[in-house]
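Dear support,

I submitted the protein below through the web form. The confirmation email said the job was done, but the results page showed an empty box. After a refresh the structure appeared. I'm attaching both so you can tell me whether what I see now is the final result or a partial one.
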Amino acid sequence: MTPSSSALAPSSIAERVAAVRTRIDAACRAAGRDPAEVTLTAVSKTQPPEAIDAILGTGQRIFGENRVQEAQGRWTERRATLPDLELRLIGPLQTNKAEDAVDLFDVIETLDREKLARALAQAAEKRGRSPRVLVQVNTGMEAQKAGVLPDAADALIAAARGTYGLTVDGLMCIPPADQDAEPHFEMLRNLAGRNGLKVLSMGMSGDYETAIRCGATHVRVGTALFGERNRP
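What the results page shows now:
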């Protein structure tokens, strides 16, 4: 019987991970890139404990989460036994959750406004821990979506680095679902290039091969590893 997305067998998770890694390697080779240049971030939001344990069993150690509180419940205890774990916040962050995010995450991919940069800098000073950050760019200029608008991104990057002293590693985007992703990935790559940024977090289950062709260094894959989400 085929397991449901809420109770995936470890063998199914292992097969999915292997298939995604094979496709990443193939996409890198097709683009003339070293597969070691591309990091797989497993999007573990909403997944049950058995699925998390199964993917950990494959050696996967880099995970993306959307919500701080949910991630705390999932990873706080596991983190104590997994020194090589890397947690990346890939969902919008409220300023009142900045301290919790700084405590838990190694990378915050969703910096999109100066108010949040200030809150993260203050939280880092208070907690004695400073995660790396990515600036999220709303490449499609969608009103309902988080991210700094493209024409304001350079100023935010400069403020995050200079005014607030944050370690800005790179950029992140989520292209509009109803548009060709490639122009959005190219926009992000060009924006990163002119700001001297090396990390490009772009590409999800449906378009990560295109993202790799456009220079992605991190791809965020959930459905292709775990199946459909268990809840919205």
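Response: this is the final, complete result; the empty box was a page-load delay. The two ends are 25 Å apart (CA to CA).
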